[in-house]
Amino acid sequence: MRRANRREKLRKYREVLRALPTADQAFVTPADTLVMSLLRLVTCAVSLMLTIVSSSAQAGNSRRAYSATYTGYNPSTSNFDLSSPIYYQLPDSNVFGPGPYPVFIWTPGSYEVYTDPLSMQFVSEMSKRGFLAASVQYNNTESQQTCPSYVPRTQGVFDASRSTSAVGVLCALSKANCTAGIVTSGISQGGMLAVIARNYAPNVKAAYALSVGAYNKAILPIDLTACMGKQNTAIPANRLTVVTGQADPSFGTQSSVQSVSGFSCPDGNYQCWDPSGSGAGWYLVQNSQVTDGNADHCYIDVGGCNDKFDANWLPPAGSNWALKSNLDWLATFGTRRVFSPNGQ
User: Fold this and answer.
1) Residue 298 domain-assigned (yes or no)
2) pLDDT tens track, the chain, 344 positions
3) Complete DSSP assignment for 208-269
4) How many domains, in total, are found in the chain?
5) Predicted TM-score of the model (pTM)
6) One domain for residues 41 and 73
């Protein structure tokens, strides 16, 4: 592969040299042409050298990006006939071997695009941890969200019995090893799908959900326990982590996150962990822990839902609610967490 890339670069370089203008082809004097040609030769040579160096570096770091399509849930037809895109990245084969790899699937929140900065942050981070890391687009533009809307969208992405679902397409890839395990994550509506995923994909081993809850109190109270209550989700409590902001207008209450998680702690706690030591549990991010002082629905951002990520959440931040800590936990298939030394 590396030699083939170099041959291609050399071929293009020779084509550039052949295309250099002669004195009778250009609106310049012969002397000017000679100077320009020499300059172009130098420029092309430098460019070629840099390209070869860059190509070699990229070959050494074999993480690759690809795209695919699947058929998800179409609310217009109430069928699974909506062609939707998938973006995925392979890990560095020099570090993790040639594969196949376990699979990570990210589902974005409402009105979010599968290749937005947040999606790419998760995909990049999980490919660095040895996963075939994918982000999946689905129909996420409905304004009224209830269990009857979450469930078919989850099936569209995660139904392992259907070869054309996102899971079906990804697990059919030669570089994917879904038997080794699938882990999921998502935010808001996408977080709901990540939690429900194992109901339809038995190989889902662990889930990390952001900004979710079992009771949506934003405008009209909506009870979501029929699909989000622990008694109705197949993901084991000791393989699920829920992180929501205390000022989240929809889900920012202890009872809401506890109902999803399955772990309960005395009233007033802002974090609660599996006593068996799996690292699963829930966390209500406090206003005092985020840069803008408002741990809202997008507590990961500074100043609202804008992809201006809070440094307190981004790596290398190591708080129990931060990205690194939770993805490190997820990469162990939800079996081991390194807790923050300061307890936060």
Assistant:
1) yes
2) 333 333 343 333 233 323 333 222 222 223 332 332 333 333 333 333 333 333 333 333 445 899 999 999 999 999 999 999 999 999 999 999 999 999 999 999 999 999 999 999 999 999 999 999 999 999 999 877 899 999 999 999 999 999 999 999 999 999 999 999 999 999 999 999 999 999 999 999 999 999 999 999 987 789 999 999 999 999 999 999 999 999 999 999 999 999 999 999 999 999 999 999 999 999 999 999 999 999 999 999 999 999 999 999 999 999 999 999 999 999 999 999 999 988 89
3) EEES--SEE-SSS-EE-HHHHSGGG--S-GGGEEEEEETT-TTT-SHHHHHHHH-----TT-
4) 2
5) 0.82
6) no
Token pair for 204: 């889902």
Instruction: Specify if 342 maps to a domain.
Output: no
In a domain, 339, yes or no: no
Whether 337 is in a domain gets the answer no
Based on the fold, state whether residues 135 and 227 are members of the same structural domain. yes
Domain carrying residue 275: 65-331
